[in-house]
User: Fold cysteine-S-conjugate beta-lyase from Aminivibrio pyruvatiphilus.
Amino acid sequence: MSRYNFDTVIERRGTICAKWDGMEPIFGSGELLPMWVADMDFKAPPEVIEVLRERVDHGIFGYTRRFAPYREAIAGWFERRHGWRPDTEWIRHTPGVVPALAAAILAFTQPGDGVLVQPPVYYPFFATITGRGRRVVENPLIFTGSRFEMDFEDLEKKLEDSSVKLVFLCSPHNPCGRVWTREELERFAHICASRGVTVISDEIHCDILFGGARHIPLADVSEAIRDLSVTTVAPSKTFNIAGLSTAAVIIPSKRLRDNYQSVIDFLHIDGGNVFGTLALEAAYTKGDAWLDELLVYLEGNLGFIEKFLAERLPEIRLIRPEGTYIPLLDCRSLNLAGPELQNILVEKGGVALDGGHWFGTGGTGFVRINIAAPRSLVIEGMERIGRAVRSLGKFPAEDNRSFQA
Ligand SMILES: Cc1ncc(COP(=O)(O)O)c(C=O)c1O
Assistant:
């Protein structure tokens, strides 16, 4: 029996949201079906909304602090969901994961240093690296035809350069949808630890897992990598509360923790948002049942998309994600350059998707689709993508049957 409803379409236009109200400057039209930015078109869990409502009713929104139950909620969540309990002393604050990445750049590197990334990858990684004069060093993922894998030999080679001071791991990987296996992480950790390089492990997507995939926190892989790791986590993707600007950073090494904290103190961003603080605690203590149902629903959306593509649009393939609700669609058979592909989807289909080329090396020919929406919107989105592809005239005429999910 379902306790939660993910089918209801909730109007988001006019709610100052980035996904629906913020489309026009990016896609040239505000009238598209947005399947881009990584938030969900579902309400947050009622258990979270209830706590926020109580605070709204209280009516005083002064400065806030985080206390022991807050850190305990984070540690308890990771222990329950991912079999790893961080020491609550290791937990530090950030208003978002990207600000934590930027703080890490300031804390652990100097201008001119290299920072290694594994593209195609979440594009703000690049801007945080170059924004203060650090260099992007690429260790591109290898596409095997069905999934993306790490290129360990290239990783070793790139880390021979002693000016590479930091590595950004995206785990699970956005947009490639990989949930790295223990074997892969052990090999990765071994290479990084033998070089003694600090690793930021961005684990913001760690709760969105499919098909029995298990997330392994990097810090749990070996003692050596634990002491070099800075792990970013957040309830924002999992519970659709990104607008509450609250995330956490887990740093086992005291030296790295103190360096990170000094930047956060300097920027004076340790205070926190009262709603975000309460929402994190509620989500991580009361959100399990909601998340379990959400994952089943999202897996249903993936199944629908695969069926739709197989029956109606075989030119395009879903790169089946092991995790994340923002998988790639392989559109390489259309032979279109990245911006051209994205424009056709906008102009002929009326659908806004992240262009694969936004994610750097290896992304061209793919688009990223956000599947975290009520099934009816996902159906509408796939029909729009189909219309755009048929408009190219290279493939059989448009199939106008309405698709049964
Ligand atoms: C890998 C990754 N890191 C960070 C973020 C954003 O984090 P925040 O909104 O907390 O800055 C996203 C959002 O899509 C993401 O995919």
Remarks:
- Residues 47 and 218 are 30 Å apart (CA to CA).
- The chain has a mean pLDDT of 96.
- The first strand starts at residue 33 and ends at 34.
